[in-house]
Design goal:
Blueprint: H1 2-61
């Protein structure tokens, strides 16, 4: 009975370790995705503002 309990504890420990590694990987991937999204949003905002300013300047001249 003692060996079975030890084996069950080891299996539970291995499962918890695998879940911890998967969680860390998911957190890292999520962080990278958010950073990429923030960069793209910033670049798109800058481009959109530039295009808006250019078109407003053209309307003011006419």
């Amino acid at each position: 009975a003692k060996a079975a309990a030890t084996e069950a504890a080891n299996k539970a420990r291995e499962a918890a370790d695998a879940a911890r590694k998967a969680g860390a990987t998911l957190a890292f991937a999520t962080c990278i995705a958010l950073l990429i999204g923030a960069f793209i949003a910033s670049a798109a905002g800058a481009l959109g503002g530039s295009l808006r300013d250019e078109s407003q300047g053209a309307e003011m001249i006419r």
